Amino acid sequence: MSDETVLKVAVEGEVATVTFAKPQVRNAMNEQMIVLLTQALHKLSVAAAVRVVVLKGEGPTFCAGADLGWLSSLTQASLEDRQRHAMQIIQMFDAMDRCPKPVLAVVHGTTNGSGVGLAAAAHICIAPETASFTLPEARRGLSSSVMIPYLTDALGARALRRYLTTGESFTAYQALYLGLLHSVAPAPKQDQPEVDTLAALENSMIAAILKGAPATIANAMDTILVCKNTPDDPDRMRWASQRFAEVLGSPEALEGIASFAEKRQPNWTR
C-alpha cells in the first residue's frame, strides 16, 4: 500500500488538511499510518505558509483506533520491540500536542480507542451530533497508557475512570459536556437537508483561527504546554511575566494595537 493511500496531506492557502485514507478498515491505525502522521505533523509545524492543520478521516468513520491485526502481530514480538512501537504512538500524540499551529480534528462516525486519543490530543475538536466515542481497551485486555495523559486533559479523571473501565459508548453531546468536543454540528434542518452543518462549523472554526496573529498563537500554544507541565511557583511566574513582556514588544502586538485604534483589520486577518 502506498503512502498516498494511507494518509493524504493537502495544503490550500494557509490550511493544511491531513486525511486518514483507509476507509476500508475504518481508518484503523498501524505502524505505517502512525509514522506518516507523526512526520506530517512535524513538517507542517515548521511550514511557514501553514496556519491551521485540519485532521479528518475518509469513509464512514474518523478512526476506529489501532488495527487489531497489527496489535496481534506485536503480541509475538519482544518486549523491547513492543516498547519501540509504543514510543512511536506516544510520539504521534506528542507531535500533535506540541504543534505550534492549531490542530482542528473533524471527527465523525464511531470513533474508538486511539481515535478518541487523537480527538483529545487535537487542540480543537468538533463533530456532528451523530458521532459516538468508545474506549474499548479494557474489553480487549489492552492498555490505554500511551493516550491517558491526553484523555485526562480532555475528559477529566472522573469521567475517564468510567469510560475506560466500562467500555461504554458516549454520544457527541456527552463528549461536548465532558470537554472532549468543543462544538457539535446539529443535524441539517428538514427544509435544508443539503446543508453540510459539519463543514459549516469547520469553516467557521478555521475563519476564527485565521483572525488571530500567527506568531502570537504559536506563543500561546507553547505557553500552555509550559504551564501545564511545570509547577505553579515563582519561577513559572517570572517566566510568564517575561513572555508577556517579550510579546508586548513584538511586531504583531504593535500591529494589533494600531489596527484597533485605526478601526481596521490587522494585516494577518483573512
Tag the structure with descriptive keywords.
alpha/beta; 6-stranded mixed beta sheet; 13 helices; 2-enoyl-CoA Hydratase, Chain A, domain 1; 270 residues
Brief summary:
This protein is of the alpha/beta class and 270 residues long. The protein has 13 helices and 9 strands. The chain has a 6-stranded mixed sheet with strand order 1-2-3-4-6-9, sandwiched between helices. A 3-stranded mixed sheet has the order 5-7-8.
What does this protein structure show overall?
- This protein has 270 residues and is α/β, with parallel strands linked by helices.
- The chain has two domains: 3-208, 2-enoyl-CoA Hydratase, Chain A, domain 1, CATH 3.90.226.10; 213-261.
- It contains 13 helices and nine strands.
- It has helices at residues 3-6, 31-45, 68-74, 79-97, 113-121, 137-140, 148-155, 157-166, 172-178, 197-210, 214-229, 234-248, 251-261, and strands at residues 7-12, 15-20, 52-57, 103-106, 110-112, 124-128, 132-134, 169-171, 183-185.
- It has a six-stranded mixed β-sheet with strand order 1-2-3-4-6-9, sandwiched between helices. The chain has a three-stranded mixed β-sheet with strand order 5-7-8.
- Helix 2 links the parallel strand 2 and strand 3.
- Helix 5 (113-121) crosses helix 7 and helix 7 packs across helix 8 (157-166).
- It is globular and about 60 Å long.
- The relative contact order is 0.10.
- The model has no long low-confidence stretch (mean pLDDT 93).
